[in-house]
Amino acid sequence: xxxxxxxxxxxxxxxxxxxxxxxxxxxxxxxxxxxxxxxxxxxxxxxxxxxxxxxxxxxxxxxxxxxxxxxxxxxxxxxxxxxxxxxxxxxxxxxxxxxxxxxxxxxxxxxxxxxxxxxxxxxxxxxxxxxxxxxxxxxxxxxxxxxxxxxxxxxxxxxxxxxxxxxxxxxxxxxxxxxxxxxxxxxxxxxxxxxxxxxxxxxxxxxxxxxxxxxxxxxxxxx
Length: 223
Description:
- By secondary structure, the protein is of the alpha/beta class.
- The protein has helices at 10-17, 29-42, 82-92, 109-112, 131-138, 154-171, 173-187; strands at residues 2-4, 22-26, 50-54, 67-73, 93-104, 143-151, 199-206.
- The chain is globular, with a radius of gyration of 16 Å.
């Protein structure tokens, strides 16, 4: 499993707990140091099973593949050349492998009103994606999108905007990860199909339409 843009490492940890061997990449040595301190040192997870590396998505082609699955959550909207990154994901996946991609819903008022980052210096370079723009991005590259859904109603928006963001400012990514753990039972009660979802999730398969890799991991799209 590759976690491309691991943030606070929550999805890397969930993948590890499901039995996967996980390689996780992100920009920023501080993110790597904090993830190592929390997951490898404090929780005692072997670096052979869950490793964190400083690397941006444009460099992901240097990784040793192939991977069975790639997670890229709330990251692609920070990257200007999203097609180049997704083309790299396609090369890194084995035939039948799965890309789990989740980004802000470009039609949500929260994102539509956001000022974009014109210099690709860490902010959002686009307001997000819709199901249609995800299909337009992925299908020409050889992916088959076999599932899409809106993620996040009012509870997840409250958790992220009113709780997680202030704790991230105070305590960094470990504070944000703590909120993710504590909020999971409550977010599960959020609307299953919100009228205006916060984010859009797609499950995209490389090449083989008959392969159903990663069915047990689909629950991530609702958290």
